[in-house]
Amino acid sequence: MLSKEMEKSLNEQIAMEGYASYLYLSMASWCEKQTLTGCAAFMFRQSEEERQHMLRIFHYINDVGEHAITPAISKPPHKWSSIQGLFEEVYTHEKNVSASIDRLVAQSYDEKDHQTLAFLQWYVEEQREEEVLMRTILDRIRLIGDGPQSLYYIDKEVSAINQKQVAAEGAEGKQ
Ligand code: FEO
To answer: Is the CB of 18 inside a 6 Å radius of any atom of ligand 1?
Structure first.
């Protein structure tokens, strides 16, 4: 059982994860149109990961006897001025998600909702990993440079990072 406030907050988090999935799908499409196939593969996988983040909360709410609500998702942007700009937006979005998870953790403490607090620990760790990942990509892009001659190398780098993520997820049995 959840408080009405916690049910509402978790449903809002569902909407946030759902929007992230759509935003990253849109980014994957833009990357593909720029023939940045490594970046596209990375964003398609991230989009799927966000959908799994959304579903995990969905199942939790229903498992504890409340009602998970399928959110309305607003249309994400579909164009970016550069690959660096795109990854800066991803990093900002991930920091916003982390702040939202932190607020949920604080709410669970306040409500002495130990069940939700335990459930959220997975998200705390996941957000730490996602922020590190996005910061690493941005650091590499800044090192390589964002000019037209650099795009090939950026794409190769992001592709290698993506392959590493796929291998790590396979080893962990993560969806
Ligand atoms: Fe589920 Fe990357 O926030």
So the answer is: no
Evaluate: CB of 134 within 6 angstroms of ligand 1. no
Q: Which domain holds residue 75?
A: 4-165
Question: Predicted confidence band at 174 (pLDDT cuts at 50, 70, 90)?
Answer: low
Give nearest CA residue, ligand 1 atom 2.
Answer: 94
Q: Which residues of 145-171 are buried (b: 16+ CB within 10 A; e: fewer)?
A: eeeeebbeebbebbbebbeebeeeeee
Q: How remote is the CA of residue 157 from the centroid of ligand 1, in Å?
A: 22
| Number of compact structural domains in the chain | 1
pLDDT in tens, 102-147: 999 999 999 999 999 999 999 999 999 999 999 999 999 999 987 7
In a domain, 113, yes or no: yes
